[in-house]
Amino acid sequence: MQIQSYEVIPRLRLYVKMICTMNCDEETDTNQIRVLPDACVELFVNYTSTPVAVIENELYKRSIISFRMNRPVDVQMRKGAGCLAICFYPGMAYKFFQVPMCTLSNTTAALSDIWTGLADEIEDQLACARDNNTRVQIAQNYLVQQINRGKNDLQLDYCIQQAHLSGGLVSLSKLTNDACISQRHLSRIFKQYIGLSPKEYLRICRFVHSLTHMKKYPAFSLTEIACKSGYYDQAHFNRDYKTYTGYAPGKLVRAPHILY
Question: Which end of the chain has fewer CB atoms within 10 angstroms, the N or the C?
Answer without folding.
Answer: N
